[in-house]
Give the backbone structure.
Amino acid sequence: MRWIVFQIFLTAGAILLAPSGRCAPVEPPATLPVAEAGDAQRPSEQPRRGPHGGLLHAVDPFRCEIVFSDRVVRIYIADRDGKAVATRGVRGRLSLREKGSRQQRHYDLYPTVDRASGDPCLRADVNFTKIRNGDATASVVIHRLNPSGQPPLRVSEAFRRTPPPDVIAIQRQLVCPVSGKILVAEPKTVKVRAGDVVVYVCCQGCASTVRLAPEKYIKRLAKLPPPGKGSPK
């Protein structure tokens, strides 16, 4: 009985000593996050554009790039150094789920070679014409790629048509080397060939300037200031 009274006394004292006259809250013990299934196959980097314009996923030891058009999906695989990985004997499957639907559509991916770039890839013919960008999730599983019986490579992303090559190149260059203005993929943006280099500029006036001194502006591309830091002189 005395022990119970003593415990009650200690509890009351703790409440009275709590700051601001309030009962000190009891915090739950810290816990570590629990890994969900498939965490080991999640990309270790934020997706960025690959050499073919699709989003690039880093799933060690590979880099996987998904390129969507209205009727075809292509999957390009590279190693850590960006070297294309042969897809002969590799198989895969694309699963597509549209928003608001519980059903998934599945498409087999087969090895082929991209005629435009000459790079090996996996391909499936899929009609995406009725799907709006962002209205579906595409999940890809690739088998027979990892050695020694390791799990298949898995990536997923929201469906978005891959922009045309010129749009991607404009986004990468970002700044007009003549005016210093931010480039936007619009009709007035001009594509200029300076030898073997393609330069994008914001208007016809800048295009004429580049044609008069192409080497000067090719060199300037590598020295452009970040956006908002002023125009090149």
Remarks:
- The chain is about 20% helix and 30% strand.
- The chain has two domains: 41-158, 165-221.
- The longest strand covers residues 105-113.
